[in-house]
Design brief:
2 domains; 77% helix; 1% strand
């Protein structure tokens, strides 16, 4: 029983990042629909982003303050400016463009486009030498081919809409309200692509910031508060009606609470932890799971419009993504970092010292025993 328990614990520790990111994608799936319902109800997407990050910052702040008091580095001006840029990329700019594009496209399209973040992140990681790329073997070629195929899928979804796929039965839940939403597919596609590029830069920058500020909870809280302030300034410039900032105890409240506590709070912390453990490309590997779940729910449950172009492009993107992931997962020859080499050398040195000390102690004990026997024999004589 104890052996099985140890095996289960070891398996959990090994696949903990995979489990966390799988749960994260399930949470993201629900986010698409609850935010669409809120926007159809009349909530402004930019106001939603501002409120959501304020809620997330308030939810994370107590845990960050008490749990990371001893490990939280001192916040210098240079580090704050780095967090400011990090918040601008992934907390205020990218989400504002992303959710604005939801008015012109559909949740299925957005979920499919998110898959391109892995390819874009990989390209940036190669340029910045955070990823290994060897074109002399098959896995290196698979990485390049997967990236190109994914980008081809993006172009297909962006430029080709295609006919609507007819629903085979009556939808169970209706999210769209009485207000007609004007669909401008090209405009929404451009906004989505720009937001995905911005998010890729955000993931890459996280890997650098975490080296200088390794307190994930505190970093999450800072990004949410700074991002909320940035989003508020932007929203004030484009939204002049005070009534747009009003929020009632309805779907707007629940979508803001869910987006703040779960998505911008808990899941951002999980992503930071996984980024530190596995790297920025690993975090983007699980996006296809959300794509599949969103497509199934949107089509069969909520009766969302599903276009042939989105299906074809989504399949191409997923094929390209898994070509990229196959090439990445086959990377076994990872060079050892200098600090790891130093750590190994120190361990070997300590083991050698212990062996020498043990051997010396045994020799001294043997010599002492011989002298005692000789002295005892002499006394008897």
């Amino acid at each position: 029983m104890a052996t099985k328990a140890c095996t289960l614990i070891g398996t959990y520790r090994r696949f903990k990042p995979h489990i966390f990111m799988t749960v994260a994608q399930m949470c993201y799936t629900f986010l698409y629909f609850i935010t669409e319902a809120s926007f159809n109800h009349g909530m402004n997407s930019h106001v939603y982003i501002t409120y959501r990050h304020i809620v997330a910052g308030l939810a994370i702040l107590p845990f960050a303050y008490f749990l990371e008091r001893k490990i939280r580095p001192k916040l210098t001006l240079a580090l704050f400016m780095e967090i400011f840029v990090l918040s601008l990329l992934g907390v205020s700019l990218a989400p504002n463009m992303y959710f604005a594009s939801l008015r012109f496209t559909s949740p299925t399209f957005l979920a499919s486009m998110v898959n391109t973040i892995a390819s874009l992140t990989f390209v940036l990681a190669v340029i910045l030498r955070l990823e290994i790329l060897d074109l002399r073997n098959l896995r290196g070629i698979a990485k390049i081919l997967g990236t190109l195929v994914s980008l081809a899928g993006v172009m297909t979804m962006t430029l080709y809409k295609g006919p609507i796929v007819q629903n085979i039965w009556h939808p169970q839940i209706h999210l769209r309200g009485n207000i007609g939403i004007h669909e401008n597919w090209l405009k929404g596609s451009i906004l989505t692509v720009i937001s995905c590029i911005t998010w890729s830069m955000w993931y890459i920058m996280q890997a650098y910031t975490l080296k200088r500020y390794p307190a994930q909870l505190s970093l999450t809280a800072w990004m949410n508060f700074v991002g909320a302030a940035q989003s508020a300034v932007f929203t004030v410039f484009i939204q002049h009606k005070p009534a747009a900032w009003a929020i009632g105890f309805n779907i707007d409240f629940w979508s803001t609470l869910y987006g703040g506590v779960v998505i911008s709070g808990l899941l951002v912390f999980i992503q930071l932890w996984c980024t530190e453990e596995k790297g920025p490309v690993f975090v983007t590997m699980f996006n296809p799971l959300s794509t599949i779940l969103v497509a199934v729910l949107a089509y069969f449950v909520f009766g969302e419009k599903l276009y042939v172009g989105s299906i074809i492009g989504g399949v191409i993107v997923i094929v390209g993504l898994y070509l990229l992931l196959w090439g990445k997962e086959r990377d076994k020859d990872v060079p050892v970092k200098p600090e790891e080499q130093a750590y190994t050398t120190n361990e070997e040195h300590e083991d050698l010292q212990i062996k020498v000390f043990t051997s010396t102690a045994k020799d001294l004990k043997g010599e002492t025993q011989k002298l005692y026997n000789s002295f005892d024999s002499h006394m008897i004589t």
